[in-house]
Amino acid sequence: MTKSAIIGVSGGRARSLAEAYRHVTRGRLVSVSSRRRDKLEEFGAAFDVPARHTDYREMFEQEKPDLVHVNTPPSVRLEIFEAAEEAGVPGVLVEKPLAIQGEDYLAIQAFSRSARVKIAVNHQLHFHPRRNMLQRQVRDGAIGNLRFIEASAGMNLAYQGTHALQAISAFNPDAVPIDVFGQVSGAEGLQETPRHHYAPDQCTAAISYDNGLSALLRCGGLAPRVVDGPVNVHKRIAVYGDKGFLHWTMHGWESRIDGKYACGVHAYAEEDILGQAAMTEAMIDWIEDDGAIHPLNIGSALSDFGVILGIYESALNREVVRLPSKPPPGLVEKLRNALS
């Protein structure tokens, strides 16, 4: 049985991670860590977690977890990765975004080249049952040769835009982004906050891939509003091929394949808990088998984040950015200065 742990127990995401273990057959949540003792005790009691630590390094040493969920601000990602590597932790599932700007992206990239710890990023939508079914249809050629993908998220790139970008990769597997042309606006999301999720308020970007496919990404106020409700419910993706299209949102789906139209609805909360569990099971597969590489592995996540940095560089310099590109230093500060 895989021993799992969570670092950072504040907010709804930590609770979702814990609740998903009701559906994880080969893993058990045995320890949690938080600097706040009150939050730690409350969370541990709510989910019957026996080991509770205010220092995650101490937790690594004493509990020896196999899989660690990292639910912290991105500003401390690398130090946790390094501590997990030193402690011999086999696997880490980290919350998005993986990084914030070029400096931490390059540092994580350098770390990943020689690291033994297996790292994947928590984009659980990839494993939602309905979206997973649509992804399989595309892989099996149901809509024919891919022509165009359009994805969007109601929140900015750091909060939910990474979900939309990862969705493009999920429906266009094995393709490599080769260039991006982007525009951004709004500086409210670039202001200092404890969560360190810095990004312009909205963006639009055209992305080209080495298989000839092009994609459009829109985040923030530019994103289409697809259902009633708060800004976080507007994640969506539409995939077009020469035989038809598929369209997924947080609350429904539709398709037209060979002239036949179909549609339906799903309950996001139910899909999400099953998606979290399936994502965790896939991480256990990878821990047990080096060949069972997680689809959300750090290499894939770094490629996606390189696109985000390319959007920023493109917007600042008003030019197409060829990928992969070494990001210039201080991108977030440059965006603050340009947009404020």
Tell me the β content. Answer: 25-35%
CATH topology of the largest domain: Dihydrodipicolinate Reductase, domain 2
**DSSP, total strands:** 15
Cα shape: globular
User: Which series of helices and strands comes N to C?
Assistant: EHEHEHEHEHEHEHEEEEEEEHHEH
- CATH superfamily (homologous) name of the largest domain: Dihydrodipicolinate Reductase, domain 2
Q: What is the average per-residue confidence, as pLDDT, rounded to a whole number?
A: 96
Number of helices: 10
Query: Largest beta sheet: what is the strand line-up?
Result: 14-13-12-11-7-10-9-8-15
The unreliable regions are: none
Class inferred from helices and paired strands: alpha/beta
The end-to-end distance, rounded to whole angstroms, is 51 Å
Gyration radius, rounded: 20 Å
**What's the level 1 CATH class of the largest domain?**
Alpha Beta
Indicate the CATH architecture of the largest domain: 2-Layer Sandwich
Number of domains: 2
Largest sheet data: 9 strands, mixed
| Helical proportion, percent range | 25-40%
